[in-house]
Amino acid sequence: MKDAAAIASAAATLRARREPFLMATVVRVQGSSYRRPGARLIATAEGRLAGTISGGCLERDLLRTGFWRARHGPVLVRYDSQDLDEGEPVLGCGGIVEVLLEQGTAGAEDDPLALLTGVLSSDQAAALATVFQTTDRSIPLGARWALRGGSLAEASHPGHPRAPGLLDAMASASAKVLATERAACLELATDQGVVDVLVEPILPAPHVFIFGEGPDVLPLVTMARHLGWRVTVWGAPDSLGNRAHLVAAGAVVESDLEVVRGRVDASHRAMAVVMGHSLSRDREALRAALASRAVYIGVLGPRHRTASLAAEVSHGLLADPRVHAPIGLDLGAETPEEIALSIASEILARIRGASHAPLRQRETIHGGAT
């Protein structure tokens, strides 16, 4: 989430300067890896970076060799922890990572970032399909398609073949990718060969709506923004004494509840946090959140307080699967900063569909990777 914003910002800077750059995209992983398919980094000849694809080992190698490797066009590079060739980076995670390297100049015809940044700027959910291996000469390495609603929205170059069978398969995969919010790798046969395609979800940043105005709001705003989430804070105009600090931290501050409710309904992934420390204000906030399209509604405070609110707002409140009360994970949090960490952790788990369980209780960290 934060990587996407950083890459979009870097693309704008590069475009203004018409500066050449290298884009590295993790396209396939076997076994363990630090990042999953779809992770990216952007580098210039001076070494400026946006995004990450590893814990540092691959970045060091790509800054040293990436431009040379991609000098003749897009190239697939394989990093294998079992391959101990001198000069190759050693992967401490013990897996195999395949990375697509592409050179380009921002704003030029060969700009590999153009379609990605276009999708990001649309603020709509889409799937991005990228060819990272091909034996079909009519479909070049690095060809890209953006898909929305199960159909083609845009291609990276007008000259790219439409390849109906290929596009049908990608469109079908895109529906699952967007539903699960997880990238998928496809191996697809065409009339002239075989192509390997990464299909990844490109999603608007989650939007956290905080209903409250106490001193514990700012730490949550700060943490949410650090994670790349959007934040809107609702509070009474005369009680938002820290408004300047909230705005400086990256929040949008709004005192009109109906305006906030409209923004919740317009958001792709809206998370509502009720933490007003006022029963009357929290009742208003809960009514608005329950009637909205928020996918997560967290309520700060003990269970008996929420039960009291439920008696006045909605008897079905505690049975609503969106409602998390008390909000947060059991981290033993005491301070506002610790409480913010507890809340943000639960929201992140909801976004990722994770279990909250310690990783030591899992056989693998990511799906099929140890």
Automatic annotation (TrEMBL):
Domain XdhC- CoxI: 15-80
Domain XdhC Rossmann span(s) in chain numbering: 208-347
InterPro entries, per the entry: MoCofactor_Util/Proc, XdhC_CoxI, XdhC_Rossmann_dom
Family matches, as Pfam families: XdhC_C, XdhC_CoxI
Residues forming coiled coils: none
Protein name, as recorded: Xanthine and CO dehydrogenases maturation factor, XdhC/CoxF family
Native species: Chondromyces apiculatus DSM 436
